[in-house]
Amino acid sequence: xxxxxxxxxxxxxxxxxxxxxxxxxxxxxxxxxxxxxxxxxxxxxxxxxxxxxxxxxxxxxxxxxxxxxxxxxxxxxxxxxxxxxxxxxxxxxxxxxxxxxxxxxxxxxxxxxxxxxxxxxxxxxxxxxxxxxxxxxxxxxxxxxxxxxxxxxxxxxxx
Length: 159
Prior knowledge:
By secondary structure, the protein is mainly alpha-helical. It has helices at 16-46, 51-75, 81-85, 100-113, 115-133, 142-147; strands at 88-92, 149-153. Strands 1-2 form a two-stranded antiparallel ribbon. The radius of gyration is 19 Å and the shape is elongated. The chain starts with 15 loop residues before the first helix and ends in a 6-residue tail after the last strand.
């Protein structure tokens, strides 16, 4: 890696193991928030007197989702909470800045809403890639290919 005023830092693809564990952390957070949201709202909506509280819970939950999976990755250069733990980030393969819509599509639509479809497909992709290349270095998963993104390792400060 090169450092200096004009030197660019060349980032390498993040290992699949780090990406997978970061995904599990983010997916678990989304699932827990959604579970709390649905059970809380369901319980509050059943009683007519607490319907306004249910609307407040819904509003707060939407704000938390927006903060964690839209604002945070956009403002922290493609890092979700799971990615922050493993010093990895998402970047565009087209040298564009990751915007709100791209982060929303990546972190919520593809990785959460389509998880039941993408997880088996990406598992098959990983197995086939490993059979062909005998390693998993450089693999880009389906959602990365569709959105023209990749996940890279961030060099730790001082190295």
